[in-house]
C-alpha cells in the first residue's frame, strides 16, 4: 500500500495532537498545585463525627513551632468553628469533613479550595503571614441555605493569639 506523503504528515500531526491533549489533561490533574479531592486525609464515619476526637469539638490546635491544625466541620449551612483563628506567620493544615452532604471549602484569596465529601477528610495546608481576615465559602450546592454558608478565617497578630474557647469549656 502506498500512502501519500501529505497523508503521512497529517497522520503524524493528528497523533501528536492527541498526545498533546492527553498530556494537558494529565498535567492539569497532577501538577501546578491544583487541589483535587483525595483520600490523603483519610476516611471517617460521617454519621459519627461526635465520637471522633478530632471533629467532636471542631477547633484549632498547636502542633509545633508556628504550626497549627484546624479541625473543621462543614455542615448545612455553617462551618465550625467560626471564626477560625490562627496566628500570623504560621502554617495551618485544615482537616475538613462533612456529616451531611457535599460542601466546598474555599479560603477566599488563597489557593485553598477543595471539596468536602461526607466520609472523607479533606486536607489542605495554607501559610498565613500578615494579620488579615479571609472569607470562607462553600462552593458546592448543598441545599436551600447554600448561598448563606460562609465562615471566616482570622489571622491575628502573633502576640494577640490565644488558642480557642474550646479549650476553656
Ligand atoms: Cu455547603 Cu454549599
Which CATH architecture of the largest domain would you pick? Sandwich
List the ions, cofactors and other small molecules found in this model.
Answer: dinuclear copper ion
CATH class annotation of the largest domain: Mainly Beta
Rg value: 22 Å
Tally of individual domains? 2
The average pLDDT score comes to 89
Number of helices: 1
Order of helices and strands: HEEEEEEEEEE
First-residue to last-residue Cα separation: 83 Å
Which range best describes the helical content: under 10%, 10-25%, 25-40%, 40-55%, 55-70% or over 70%?
10-25%
Explain how this protein is built:
By secondary structure, the protein is of the alpha+beta class. The chain folds into 2 domains: 1-34; 49-167, Immunoglobulin-like (Sandwich), CATH 2.60.40. It has 1 helix and 10 strands. A hairpin with a 5-residue loop joins strand 6 and strand 7 (113-116).
